[in-house]
Amino acid sequence: MRYALTTAAFIASAAAHATFQQLWINNVDAGSSCVRLPNSNSPITSVTGSDIACNVAGSSRGVCPVNAGDQLTVEMHQQPGDRSCNSEAIGGDHFGPVQVYMAAVSDATTAVGSSQNWFKVAGLGMVSRSPNYFGTQVLNDNCGHFTFTVPRDIAPGNYLVRAEVIALHVASQPGGAQFYVSCYQINVSGSGSAKPPTVKFPGAYSANDPGILVNIHQSLSTYIVPGPTPYGTTIPPVASTPYPTTATWNTANQPKTVPTVVPGSPATTVSTGQGGPTSVSTSFTTPTVTPTSTPGGSPLWGQCGGVNRMDWRHFLCTGNVQSTQRLLSSVRKLGRIRSAYLCH
């Protein structure tokens, strides 16, 4: 039985990776406008490398405006750009805690995550022992959404927001815990002056912490959440009754599209030739994504002669309409526009 559980856990570990991709501000959908999107949905497994801070991610020029005391919601899904509630946000029995940290920075667009001072603002560990039920399961119940409050008394300015899931399905051995991390860029308005106690990433976690090196394939009566105590709030204690699985997020109104415009920012409307105009932001930079293989074994963009579709999206997001039109005209003359849009 133990072998079967271990084997199943390893299979699950390769099946359902995920990333935090979108942000909501007081129920306003900011989409991916101010997130440093990870380059892939693969996890981080080392707590001593710099990637534990903000992952291996692209850059973003977007900084979302929020007020101290606002409610922010981070949103996770398995595949890039996905917002469907039909599949789990993070599947494959990737059970573990959900946590959010913040770090005050001088410029959120250029701040290096591993150089910052982080304070925890929210978390869900094991929420019930009857049966064992973890924060990621609550996340899945709510279509990948986790909501927290920006502390009311923190000083105004730029901040990074670090959203994290720790998957513990193969954490019974050192280096088995999987960290899924994304960083968002925000600017907090307010009149506070508080500077909460902080930790470093790397530095906040040890590979041998009891909440990181742990066998969850047994009945647990308690679970120690890694990292410091949250500032201004507490992590819910482990309940002795079954945890309610009813969603608290309105999953029926889950959007299908992903805004790339920082709320309140001007947008440029560009015709994509694919059924109508698309509003894009001049403050969003698409990260470089490493192409993966299709089921047939060919590179993802191989059918286009190596043309990366992300490059087209990036060009369309520059806001230069005349240059876009000239490019599309040139490509049409080459007879390649059809294949370029057929890439997936």
Largest sheet: 6 strands, mixed
Low-pLDDT stretches are: 1-14, 268-344
Beta-strand segment tally:
14
Radius of gyration: 21 Å
Shape field: globular
What is the structural class?
alpha+beta
| H and E string | HEEEHEEEEEEHEEEEEHHH
The total count of helices amounts to: 6
> Helical content, roughly?
10-25%
* Proportion of residues in extended strands: 15-25%
N- and C-termini, Cα separation: 41 Å
The oligomeric state of the chains shown is single chain
User: Overall pLDDT, averaged?
Assistant: 80
Structure in a nutshell:
The chain has 344 residues and is α+β, with helices and mostly antiparallel strands. The chain has helices at residues 2-13, 51-54, 135-141, 309-316, 321-333, 337-342; strands at residues 19-25, 28-31, 35-36, 64-67, 71-77, 98-105, 118-124, 126-129, 132-134, 145-149, 157-167, 178-189, 267-271, 277-281.
Describe the structure.
Helices cover about 15% and strands about 25% of the residues. The chain is built from six helices and 14 strands. The strands form four sheets. Strands 3, 4, 6, 7, 11 and 12 form a six-stranded mixed beta sheet that branches. The radius of gyration is 21 Å and the shape is globular. Mean pLDDT is about 80; it is low at about 1-15 and about 270-344. This is Endo-beta-1,4-glucanase D. It comes from Psilocybe cubensis.
List the helices and strands and how they pair.
Layout: H1 2-13, E1 19-25, E2 28-31, E3 35-36, H2 51-54, E4 64-67, E5 71-77, E6 98-105, E7 118-124, E8 126-129, E9 132-134, H3 135-141, E10 145-149, E11 157-167, E12 178-189, E13 267-271, E14 277-281, H4 309-316, H5 321-333, H6 337-342
Parallel strand pairs: 4-12
Antiparallel strand pairs: 1-2, 1-5, 3-12, 5-10, 6-7, 6-11, 8-9, 11-12, 13-14
